[in-house]
Each structure stands twice: as structure tokens, then as C-alpha cells.
Amino acid sequence: MSRVSSASLDEAVKHLTLSWQRTKQDWTDVKSLQFEQQFLEKLPALTHQARNYIDEIDALLKKARQDCE
After folding, report:
1. What top-level branch of life does the organism fall under (predicted)?
2. Which range, of 1-5, 10-14, 27-31, 43-47, averages the lowest pLDDT?
3. Which residue of 21, 53, 58, 66 could cross-link 2, Cys pair, CB 3.0 to 4.6 Å?
4. What is d(CA 3, CA 8) in angstroms, rounded to the nearest whole number?
């Protein structure tokens, strides 16, 4: 399950990054830079953290399934 969730997360970040690269070509003011710094530059660390949480939840769900069998 975590592979699917992680893959979905990776795909979403990839899509967002590509979309941002296209948007950035036309949106070049100070607000654009602020947006990139405030949100997009934090994505790698947040994505890594989310992956860790997904893995932890996956392990808990596996244990719960095993305990119920």
C-alpha cells in the first residue's frame, strides 16, 4: 500500500514541478518568487516527511491486519 501512496505522491510532485516550470515562464514578479520560496522550495522536505508517515501508517495497518487474523 505505501508503494502506491508514495508513487502517487511522487507523481503529484512531479506534475506540480512541471506545471510550475511552465507557469514561471510567464509569472516573473516578486509574488512569484515569494510563492516559490514559501511553498515550492519546502516540497522536497515535506514530501520526504510525508513518505515517512505513509510508511509508518502502512506498518501499523499491516500489524493490525496480522493481529486480526
Report:
1. Bacteria
2. 1-5
3. 58
4. 8
Burial (0-12, 13-18, 19+ Cβ within 10 Å), 1: exposed
Q: Tell me, what amino acid is at 35?
A: F
Q: What is the pLDDT of residues 3-14, one digit of tens each?
A: 668 888 989 999
Question: 42-49 — which CB contacts under 8 Å span 24+ positions?
Answer: 43/13, 43/16, 43/17, 47/9, 47/10, 47/13
pTM to 2 decimal places:
0.74
What would the DSSP string read from start to end of 4-68?
HHHHHHHHHHHHHHHHHHHHHTT--SHHHHHHHHHTGGGHHHHHHHHHHHHHHHHHHHHHHHHHH
Residue 32 has pLDDT above 80, yes or no: yes
